[in-house]
Amino acid sequence: MKVRIICALSIMFGFGLTLPTLAQDSSGIRRIGSIYNYWDKSCGVAVHGNYAYVASGETGLRVLDISDPALPDEVGNCNTPGNAQDVAVSGNYAYVADDSSGLRVVDISNPAQPREVGCFDTEGSATGVAISDGIAYVADGSSGLCVIEISNSVRPSEVGYFDTPSSANDVAISGNYAYVIDGAGLCIAEITNPERLEETGYFSAEGYVRGFTVAGEYAYLIVDRTLLVVDVSNPAAPAGMGGNEVDEPRNVVVLGDYAYVTWENTEGSGLDVVDISNPAQPRHAGGMYMLWTNNLAVLGNYLYVTIMGPGLCVLDISNQVEPQETGRYQAGGSIVDVSVSNGYAYVVDEYRNLRIVDVSNPSQPREVAAYECSSVSVTVSGNYTYLVERSSGMRILDISNPTQPSAVGSFSGGWQNYFYDVAVSGSYAFLTAGQAGLEVIDISNPADPRGVNNCGTHGIAQGVAISGSCVYVAAGGAGLRVIALFRLPIPIREVGSYDTDGEALDVAVSGNYAYIADGEMGLCIVDVSDSTQPYEVANYNTPGKAIGVEVCGDHVFVADEVGGLRIIDVSDPTEPCEVGYYDTPGKAANVTVGVDGLVYVADNYSLSIYDCSEAMSAQTDPATHVPTAFCLNPAFPNPFNSTTTIAYALPRPGRFALDVVDLNGQIVTRLSDGWKQAGSYRDVWNANGLASGVYMVRLKSNSESISNKTILVR
After folding, report:
1. In this structure, are 444 and 409 located in the same domain?
2. 387: containing domain
3. pLDDT, tens digit, 9 for 90 and up, residues 519-569
4. Is residue 22 scored above 60 in pLDDT?
5. Do 295 and 393 fall within a single domain?
6. CATH number reported for the structural domain that contains residue 694 in this entry
7. Residues 307 and 452 in one domain
8. Which letter does DSSP use for residue 23 in this model?
9. Does residue 138 sit within a domain?
């Protein structure tokens, strides 16, 4: 028997605890509209009144209005901190089994605005939940069955537990008993005293128990490839009755004399209907093919099936052996790219489909068309959109009528290449082809695009931008590559390069400067006034991984995977200064600026539209700007001959030291030491008198330390 410490958040943090919805972390930026609600996946589902509640993995709880079964529609969502696996509803609350984050309590009194109000962090991994008489029973993996009192929704507290023989995966309550599947079988415990649960009976299944339900005197177990009926009329002695083979079953619900079983195998997926009127001889009675079926719930004459598309499918089962699809809600896939033109946003999702969104009213964007394809990136020029297809090349669509996009031509770049991005100038498209470099395509006849040239680059050619007579390629670990166009279609060649410190993923160019999304090294700014000798003038460390970049006037917009949308003032490119940010709901993947001045971000979870006017009008004096992170930029230049400049940022006042140390850890030069106010600083290191070699520049506070490598060359 395990020893457990029973505690609740109210004990740890004090009584009177409230868990308000946190305000979005932002400065100077306001989100004014969004479309597409990304679902990580579709797991457990509960139906209550006119609403279906779906546990959607990393994207939390989703709420769908099912008052019209033919038109289910998402009306609300509540992100949970873990991985939502199951949900149960009682009264005005939804109870979410949130995997490693335990039980989350969500107020659904207003289904359009569900909000978390309480939680209990269980010891294991919460994967199933059932509610009875003010108690939540949570299947908590290796920690067994956790019993939680929920009479106070803000301060749920554990009152008992039941140590199942193996890992508790799901739970159901029927009468005075809790039924728990633990992989190897069905465990039954009496719950008349929730504080002292004891095993009443156990049924050992000859296989792995994946899902189950309890109805009346029977439990229905999904065991390997079989729906198995177990008599639980005597909970102390559960007995197997009969089984019906189902190919790769996933889960089951029961209505009257029929069991509905979802299944999925290598050839497809669907729903089986099993006649259970004779529990000793269950038999196949009907079914249908469906895509990506998973979990299910039943209410009245309707069956609600979660699909791994992801989404929810509604089936009419008034004829129980011939279910008919009535309605479907298909959640949006992860949004990975966006381009904006003439009041429309052209969006690519994770399923590589193109979606066209009317953004003439930014507060209420609406989809007007979709096009099935296999694209990973999109660029718009004139009446055409150019879709990059990862393994095949480029497709061109006519969008003169955005509500009716039509294919007009395609370019196949060879099966051995991977393609990433495209930029268009005049009659040519410039397509990055990974290790194969840059493809130049004549698009003067969109119906017959033709490859006319190729320029190999070092690294993996990914992002691309055009300025003047040069093409700028973000080439991953090989940094920035500059390719001169001369006169097309005669041969083109690389004329310059700069090896950035990170992984160059995207590039934007304005005037004499290239702005590079340099992965974990943030924003790298390179002077390209001499295309043959580009050099870095500054670097700005963003909070996470800079993936996408756009420049508009004196501002650079960075899509940072962790930090969301970041706005950097580059009126002086040598002194970049962050003036605004918005921590987007998902992982920001790309960013573009419309002619209306609004900023559009593809952030995986959605396409969101932002008003950045406040941030862009902010004071931009770096001396008065307060950084948001403790950071040390790479020395510039590096390598260097005698002197180099070191820039660093302090997010709060305190005592700091900036040292140069050798590879033995010995301080050779102290550049700065003492109390400093929060702000951005630059120090010059004069290395006269020191030998050539590798040195480390170290910035240190009382609680943090960060170092960069610097090379002195004599």
Report:
1. yes
2. 335-616
3. 999 999 999 999 999 999 999 989 889 999 999 999 999 999 989 999 999
4. no
5. no
6. 2.60.40.1930
7. no
8. P
9. yes
> What does the alpha-carbon distance between residue 527 and residue 539 come to, in Å, rounded to a whole number?
12
Flag whether 625 is in a domain. no
Q: Is residue 20 part of a domain?
A: no
CA distances from 605 to 261, 346, 561 (A): 31, 16, 12
Written as one string, the DSSP assignment of 546-610 is EEEEEEETTEEEEEETTTEEEEEE-SSTTS-EEEEEE--SS---EEEE-TTS-EEEE-BS-EEEE
- Quote the Cα angle for 244-249-250, to 5°: 140
Residue 701 CB burial class (10 angstroms; 0-12, 13-18, ≥19): middle
CA 425 vs CA 99, 379, 397, 506: distances in Å = 50, 11, 17, 18
Domains in the chain, number? 4
What DSSP line would sit under 657-706, residue for residue?
EEEEE-TTS-EEEEEEEEEE-SEEEEEEEE-TTPPSEEEEEEEE-SS-EE
| 167 and 268 part of one domain | no
Q: For residues 200 and 324, state if they share a domain.
A: no
pLDDT-derived band of residue 41, with 50, 70 and 90 as boundaries? confident
- Over pLDDT 90: what percentage of the chain? 68
Structural domain ending residue among the three candidates 158, 189, 204: 204
> Distance between CA atoms of 536 and 514, rounded to whole angstroms?
9
- For the cut 70, the answer to whether the pLDDT of residue 5 exceeds it is no
Of the three residues 316, 331, 346, the one that is the final residue of a domain is 331
- For 247-261, the pLDDT digits (tens) are 899 999 999 999 999
CB atoms within 10 A of CB 364: 11
**CATH code, domain with 196:** 2.130.10.10
Q: Say how many C-beta atoms besides its own lie within 10 A of residue 1's C-beta.
A: 4
Determine what percent of the chain falls in helix, strand and coil, rounding each to the nearest 5: 0, 55, 45
Is the confidence at residue 489, as pLDDT, over 90? Answer: no
pTM: 0.69
Q: What is the pLDDT of residues 290-309, one digit of tens each?
A: 878 889 999 999 999 998 76
Q: Please report whether residue 646 resides in a domain.
A: yes
Tokens 């919460």 belong to: 126
Residue 449 has pLDDT above 90, yes or no: yes
Instruction: For the chain, give the number of residues.
Output: 714
Within this chain, do residues 473 and 526 fall inside the same structural domain, yes or no?
yes
Per-residue three-class SS string for 460-480: CECEEEEECCEEEEECECCCE
Please check the confidence at residue 11 and state whether its pLDDT lies above 80. Answer: no
Amino acid at 105: V
Distance CA 677, CA 265 (A): 62
With H, G, I as helix, E, B as strand and everything else as coil, classify residue 517: strand
> How far is residue 63's CA from residue 47's CA, in Å, rounded to a whole number?
10
CA-to-CA distance for 653 and 243, rounded, in angstroms?
Answer: 70
Task: Report the CATH number at residue 264.
Answer: 2.40.10.480
Average pLDDT over the chain, rounded to whole?
A: 89
Residue 57 is classified by DSSP as B
Q: Distance between CA atoms of 31 and 583, rounded to whole angstroms?
A: 11
Is there a single domain that holds both residue 425 and residue 572?
Answer: yes
Question: Which range among 350-364, 481-495, 654-668 shows the weakest confidence by mean pLDDT?
Answer: 481-495
Report which of 311, 289, 333, 254 is spatially closest to residue 607, judged by C-alpha positions: 333
Separation CA 632–CA 623 (nearest Å): 16
**CA–CA dist 373, 395 (Å, integer):** 9
Cβ contacts of residue 300 below 8 Å, gap of 6+?
none
Based on the domain organization, do 525 and 637 belong to the same domain? Answer: no
Query: pLDDT band for position 6 (50/70/90)?
Result: very low
Residue type, 52: A
* 306 contacts 296 by C-beta, under 8 angstroms: yes
Q: What is the mean pLDDT of residues 141-162?
A: 95
